[in-house]
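Example record used in the benchmark description.
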Amino acid sequence: MNRKAAFRQGMTDGIPIALGYMAVSFTFGIMAKNAGLTAFQAVLLSLTNLTSAGQFAGLGIITASASYIEMAFTQLVINLRYCLMSCALSQKLEQSTPFFHRFFIAYGNTDEIFGVCSCKEGKLNPFYSYGVIAVASPGWAFGTFLGVLSGSILPGRILSALGVALYGMFIAVIIPPSKASRIIAGVVLVSMGASFLFSYIPLLNQISSGFRIILLTLVIAGGAAALFPVSPDSLDHTEENSSGNTI
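Model output (structure tokens):
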């Protein structure tokens, strides 16, 4: 497949991702507006920091006027998964692929884009990734802009109702794997309980939201990995089952 054909195919496959991004980033735009960010600042944030969970967490840290260190550590912990995704995606590229292609692909290596690119048969053409990113990234930024704009126009009650979309997104993320695995379901419940305790127990509730996320993520995720390690055989089985899925 030549560059133009790969790019067009990537754009086609990126349309569903862009539509999904617009729905979620719309909520982010509303929250950014409520946090005092301008439309330019919010859109710039979405264009340069293409990570939904990282942006939502970062916005909370900005609102709390936390330190840069908390912001850096929070983003590091939340976005560490992209390092693993990048390592996996690099195996899909030809060894002769220049560094600048790898650099630009890394910019758009989100969960959804990674899923589409990793499921592409054969070696990955960089221009296919560019096509997906060229549609998905503007979709996320445009949704953010619409959210900020709506935050200035829509009544407060409607904005409050739309804010529930954020929680709906996270519920949609955790329910399918929780139904498929009791271990994941247990980790989710433990995380919810620990977060609740950190909010009400004296001394613990004095910990800032940024470091709270860091501590809970490291302790719970690390403990789950130590108690329930995933064998290579199960990973291979999972890849075989997911190879035919359309994302």
